[in-house]
Each structure stands twice: as structure tokens, then as C-alpha cells.
Design goal:
Structural class: alpha/beta
Radius of gyration: 27 Å
Shape: rod-shaped
Number of helices: 8
Strand content: 15-25%
Number of strands: 6
Number of domains: 2
Length: 252
């Protein structure tokens, strides 16, 4: 044995060095892979909800935001979930790097592979209908997500651009309704030649989004009326306890 080898053995004896048990390395490896796959799974959930929101985005509103692409992008692109996806892609990259063979792969391939796996997983989850159930839960249970969505919906308060949203407060006649908009202002809306989307029917306290044009200071002619948050289950997101509707977008 060389002098170097003897010195190493002597050092080990002096410091009373003991090897780690094999179970310690197996546990560490299991934790790393578990966190990696969990990151991919959560990224898939984010991707699935993003797909759901893109599928139901109101792309036809582009003409109303031609002067402001930022407002239009805020309305239709699921930025929150894309950020969520990128965040868990970062987690997946970090932990994959710590696997036994992780150091062999280039960063771009690890990140690309993680995103592709999340997209594939998201596509599968989308087909199960899971994101349609999860999105309202996030809205109800996560305050900052609810505020994020509220900020997105505020772009509907643009009467000069032909966009208006609010709650029906009175059925004036078969030709007119009164609504309270998201800022607490009242409008008389002409609904003579209006197309009602989503099988909607005018009713007191119904929250709606309106396309059309202004008429005077507090009048609006509706060409189309849409559900506030899409189909039935999503309307419940604006219901408080006891079935009372909350105006989440009214300024404090």
C-alpha cells in the first residue's frame, strides 16, 4: 500500500469515520424521484387548467382591444397557470439534476423534457374533465387567485369600447333592463335585438357580460349578452353563503 493509502486509512481510524448505511442513499433517491414526479404532476394540473381556460377564452373580443393588446392578453391568456407551470418545471429541473444520472443531461433538455411531460399529462387530465372541477375550487379557496381573476374581469368595465358587465337589478320591460355595473353605477340596457348566449334568460340578480355600445350618459344598447363566468357551475363562484351574490370586483 502506498504512503497516501496508509495516510487515508490512518485518518479514517483517527476520525472514527463510518460509512452511511445503504438505506440512507435509497431513501434520498426515493425522495428526489418522488419530488420530481410530483412536480411534473402539479405542472400537468396547471397545464390542464390552462388548456381549459384557453378553450373557453373569448377570442372574438379582440376587436374591442385592438388598441391595447395587453388588456386582451390579460383577459384570454391564463398567465397565472403558465407561471405555475414554469415554477414546477423549475422544481422538476432542480431535483432531476440531483439524481444519479442527472448531471449527464444538458439544462435545455431537462427543462424541455419536463415541460413536454407536463403538457402530455395536462392533455390527459383535460380529457378527464378534472380542470373544469378544479378551477372553481381554486377560485373559492385561494384568495390571491380570486383577486387575480377579479383583475382580469375588470377589463369588462369599458363601456366606451362596447364592453359592460354587472348584475340585473330590474326588469323595466320586455325591451329594457337595469343593471348595476362592477363599479356600482346603474345603466338602462336596451335588449330588443340582443342575442343571449349560454341559454341565458333575463332574471333579477343575474350577473352578465354585455357587448354593444353606449347610448347617452347611462344608456347602453346590447347586441350580445353572455354568462358572467361561463356555464352553470362557474356561476356559483360568485355566490356567497345562503346564495347571496357577492360583488367581488367592486372597488374598496
Amino acid at each position: 500500500m502506498t504512503d497516501t493509502g496508509q495516510k487515508i486509512l490512518q485518518k479514517i481510524k483517527e476520525d472514527n469515520v463510518r460509512p452511511y448505511p445503504k438505506s440512507r442513499f435509497l431513501f434520498r433517491r426515493s425522495v428526489i424521484w418522488t419530488v420530481f414526479f410530483l412536480s411534473i404532476l402539479l405542472g400537468s394540473v396547471a397545464c390542464a387548467i390552462a388548456m381549459f381556460q384557453l378553450r373557453h377564452a373569448e377570442w372574438d373580443l379582440y376587436q374591442h382591444f385592438s388598441h391595447s393588446l395587453i388588456e386582451f392578453a390579460l383577459l384570454v391568456i391564463p398567465i397565472f397557470w403558465l407561471i405555475f407551470l414554469l415554477g414546477f418545471t423549475g422544481f422538476a429541473y432542480y431535483y432531476f439534476r440531483r439524481t444519479e444520472q442527472g448531471y449527464r443531461y444538458r439544462t435545455v433538455w431537462i427543462i424541455s423534457g419536463s415541460i413536454v411531460l407536463s403538457i402530455i399529462g395536462g392533455g390527459f387530465l383535460y380529457t378527464t374533465g378534472l380542470p373544469e372541477k378544479l378551477e372553481p375550487i381554486f377560485f373559492d379557496k385561494v384568495p390571491f387567485y380570486r383577486e387575480w381573476q377579479a383583475r382580469k374581469q375588470r377589463v369588462w368595465m369599458s363601456p366606451a369600447q362596447g364592453l359592460l358587465a354587472g348584475r340585473i337589478t330590474k326588469m323595466i320591460s320586455g325591451r329594457k333592463i337595469r343593471i348595476e355595473d362592477l363599479q356600482g353605477n346603474y345603466w338602462e340596457v336596451d335588449i330588443v335585438d340582443t342575442i343571449w348566449r349560454g341559454r341565458l334568460k333575463p332574471a333579477i340578480n343575474l350577473k352578465i357580460k354585455i357587448l354593444g355600445h353606449t347610448k347617452g350618459e347611462s344608456g347602453f344598447v346590447a347586441t350580445e349578452i353572455r354568462p358572467w363566468r361561463g356555464q352553470g357551475h362557474r356561476m356559483r363562484a360568485f355566490k356567497g353563503k345562503g346564495g347571496h351574490e357577492k360583488n367581488l370586483l367592486k372597488p374598496k
